[in-house]
Amino acid sequence: WAKGGVLLEGARESVFVTTADHSFFTEPVSCQVFNAVGSTNVSILVDVHFGPILVVEPRPVTVDVDSDVTLNCKWSGNPPLTLTWTKKGSNMVLSNNNQLHLKSVSQVDAGQYVCKAIVPRIGVGETEVTLTVNGPPIISSDPVQYAVRGERGEIKCYIASTPPPDKIVWAWKENVWEKEKGTLMERYTVEQSKPQAQGGAVLSTLTINNVMESDFHSPYNCTAWNSFGPGTMIITLKEKGMLGMSKQPNSVACIC
């Protein structure tokens, strides 16, 4: 007896008993019989039903913005499987083939893609592949942020950038601060961090100690650069009351 052309050690009887797995579906089992005159060989594939098995593991892909991309993924299963590609977080099917082709990608296309295989009545398997798109920084901060007069205020600038930003600049009133360069007036500090919840984005925080009336009258420009160019956002700081409510003009009620 042999399987896939490899002799099975100790299998010399007319009946071969074994536990079948998925390999018996692709590697034929053969029985060869000899006598003084010659030999005869018969082979057969076993129709083994099995759930999805990943044959080709998809690899992470990094490309520049506006490039075409092909993501690869291959499953095996019996009965024949159904394959779908989706972007993580979406139910829209992008492809039913082993390959997913994306044309002229933008930074919005970056993220994780799910390659899912379904073998009817047997099982489901899925794997993920990460697409990274190099491009200019994207700033996703709230355009309006709040602070309480007389207290410590923070203006946050979230910078998603692949490759990472080479330069970060804050500009407001007479102040200009560049990452690792320049000085600030006594009331201001700038710090950089990478919050885990932001998926690798850089958080640049401009802190104002003892917020004054004048701090609410200037736009705050947060700009970041990498090798693909700049990304920028204008942030407005508004006054917030002690109870967390935006300060409203005084109102007068008249009863006649």
Element-by-element helix/strand order:
EEEEEEEEEEEEEEEEEEEEE
- Main-sheet strand order equals 14-21-20-16-17
> How many β-strands, per DSSP?
21
**Distance from first to last alpha carbon:** 106 Å
- Give average pLDDT, whole number: 88
The main pleated sheet reads as: 5 strands, mixed
Strand content: over 45%
Give the uncertain stretches in residue-range form: 248-256
> Helical percent range?
under 10%
Query: What's the Cα radius of gyration?
Result: 32 Å
| Principal-axes shape call | rod-shaped
Task: Please work out how many helical segments DSSP would assign.
Answer: 0
Structural class: mainly beta
Question: Your description of this structure?
Answer:
It is a single chain. With 256 residues, the chain is an all-beta fold. 0% of the residues lie in helices and 48% in strands. It has no helices and 21 strands. The protein has strands spanning 2-3, 6-7, 29-34, 39-44, 50-56, 61-64, 69-72, 74-78, 82-87, 99-102, 111-119, 123-134, 138-139, 144-147, 153-160, 167-172, 175-178, 188-193, 202-208, 220-226, 229-239. The strands form six sheets. The protein has a five-stranded mixed beta sheet, with no helix packed on it. The protein has a four-stranded antiparallel beta sheet with strand order 2-1-3-4, with no helix packed on it. A four-stranded mixed beta sheet has the order 6-12-11-9, with no helix packed on it. A hairpin with a 2-residue loop joins strand 1 and strand 2. The model is unreliable at 248-256 (pLDDT under 50).
